[in-house]
Amino acid sequence: xxxxxxxxxxxxxxATGVFPMAEHRDDDDVFWVDPxxxxxxxxxxxxxxxxxxxxxxxxxxHVSFDTDFEGVVAGCADREETWINDMLTDLYGQLHRGGxxxxxxxxxxxxxxxxxxxxxxxxxxxxxxxxxxxTDASKLALAYLVDRLRVGGFSLFDTQFITPHLASLGGxxxxxxxxxxxxxxxxxxxxxxxxxxxxxxxxxxxxxxAQTS
Length: 213
Fold this sequence. Notes:
- By secondary structure, the protein is α+β, with helices and mostly antiparallel strands.
- The protein has a single domain (34-80, 101-212), classed as 3-Layer(aba) Sandwich (Aminopeptidase), CATH 3.40.630.
- It has 8 helices and 9 strands.
- The strands form 2 sheets. It has a 7-stranded mixed sheet with strand order 4-5-6-7-8-3-9, with helices on both faces.
- Strand 7, helix 5 and strand 8 form a beta-alpha-beta unit.
- Helix 3 (69-77) packs antiparallel against helix 4.
- The radius of gyration is 16 Å and the shape is globular.
């Protein structure tokens, strides 16, 4: 347990393969997690379903990056049970302002309806949480995030755990030693979250996904 957690300590922990969680929103403390089986989403195996392709082509939603980081974190924490407490919310905000934590936002008009956020270190991206208030919004956020990570030169997308939702998109579990090896290699990569520039158009995203799937 710890009551003194700084952005520097948090990044050091991620670099060694552990991450913090709180028991619940009102908990003033956090504990460290180091799963025996780690969830990862291989960037060359991300699966865009037929229904998600239809959503992407429809242009019903629009996507942005790092436009409303605080809104995405708040959306992820806005549930009956959450591991995101005030301490972590503050730390993620500091990392975002330092250019290390990033978000993907999905909008329906002017309403934020989905998103995902995480931390980038070297060629590793540590996905923290995602939320959705519209069908396919979180899947859309992941599709654009995966595309951005590919273009940016990332080699590891750490999802911490695997849910049925992530498994349907290509996520899988790997043993802790294998994860540590992938993490060590990824941290040496010269990757950049902003290398892609503006948001990719739907056609280019789907074309690149078809080439890597």
